[in-house]
From TrEMBL:
This is pyridoxal kinase. Residues 71-258 form the Pyridoxamine kinase/Phosphomethylpyrimidine kinase domain. One of its GO terms (biological process) is pyridoxal 5'-phosphate salvage. Its EC number is 2.7.1.35. It comes from Ethanoligenens harbinense (strain DSM 18485 / JCM 12961 / CGMCC 1.5033 / YUAN-3). GO terms for cellular component: cytosol. CDD domains: pyridoxal_pyridoxamine_kinase (cd01173). GO terms for molecular function: ATP binding; pyridoxal kinase activity. Keywords: ATP-binding, Kinase, Nucleotide-binding, Transferase. InterPro entries: PM/HMP-P_kinase-1 (IPR013749), PyrdxlKinase (IPR004625), Ribokinase-like (IPR029056). Pfam families: Phos_pyr_kin. SUPFAM superfamilies: Ribokinase-like. It comes from the Bacteria.
């Protein structure tokens, strides 16, 4: 039976991120995807000025209540960028409304990068996000977000395994039993992620080529590909490697094409390879 995901993110009309990334990636993976917009923007907020912003906080509970009245089953609830502090509590309530016993709740705590909290958020936002993460079955922070969630100073890479693994254990202690931590590199020309499942007690690493530069929207590309792998039955380490490879391949295409990085990465032409990897069980590497 086809899996069904509810994606709770913003819509940026231009600049590939959030729902304009999650919907095509999950759909290409054969996953039925329903979307709940948290805000609507003319562009994303990275590298652009003068963008429009429509906050949809007041619409979210009514949106979810209508879905609940339809008696649909969600295999996963996937939250990303939230438009206000108030949405943290609302999305937590939505999780309770829509989740079933077998629903995976995946929270991407989108709020910071490169050592800094996004300008749209106040200093108390990370503590609220940590509360939302406690409701999840899986969280997917980057290294900056991990530091903010844990109330620690941000540390620039390269990292060492002892530091990464201490972060993973501390993140699981927030409440989610599984964590995928992104933005890990050990100074060897590789960049990737580490996954940890508390019940298994084991940590797995997934790497691909480290490509210089900053590319907007790659966290959403990674998270969507990760969830696609999980919904197609891959174990967490394999789904993490799949997402690392898909993201790296999308970045390589973008760099080779000379695309303006403000507009996101060229993931669309990478989708057939994602589909092939899913059919093969996610064992390959780009």
């Amino acid at each position: 039976m086809q899996k069904h995901v509810a994606a709770i993110h913003d819509i940026s009309g231009m600049g590939k991120c959030s729902l304009t990334v999650a919907l095509p990636i999950l759909s290409a993976a054969g996953i039925r995807t329903s979307i709940m917009p948290t805000a609507v923007l003319s562009t994303h907020t990275g590298g652009f000025t003068g963008f429009t912003y429509r906050d949809l906080t007041d619409d979210l509970l009514a949106f979810a209540a209508h879905w609940k009245s339809l008696h649909v089953h969600f295999d996963a609830l996937y939250s990303g960028f939230l438009g206000s502090f108030a949405q943290l509590g609302i999305v937590s309530e939505i999780f309770d409304m829509l989740r079933a016993d077998d629903t995976l709740v995946m929270v991407d705590p989108v709020m910071a990068d490169n050592g800094k909290l996004y300008s749209v958020y106040t200093p108390d936002f990370p503590k609220g996000m940590a509360g939302l993460c406690a409701k999840a079955g899986l969280i997917v922070p980057n290294m900056t977000e991990a530091a903010f969630l844990l109330g620690e100073p941000y540390r620039e890479g390269p990292y060492d395994r002892a530091y990464v693994e201490r972060l993973l254990h501390a993140l699981v202690a927030l409440g989610a039993p599984r964590v995928v931590l992104t933005g890990i590199w050990f100074g060897d020309g590789q960049l990737g992620a580490a996954s940890y499942a508390k019940h298994a007690g084991s940590i797995a690493y997934a790497f691909n080529e480290k490509i210089e530069g900053y590319y907007h929207g790659t966290g959403d590309v990674f998270g969507s590909a990760l969830l696609a792998g999980l919904m197609r039955g891959l174990p967490l380490p394999s789904a993490t490697q799949l997402a690392v490879d898909f993201t790296a391949g999308s970045i390589r295409r973008t760099k080779a094409a000379g695309t303006d990085v403000r507009f996101g990465v060229d993931f669309e032409e990478e989708l057939p390879l994602l589909q092939t990897e899913l059919e093969m069980g996610g064992t390959g590497s780009n």
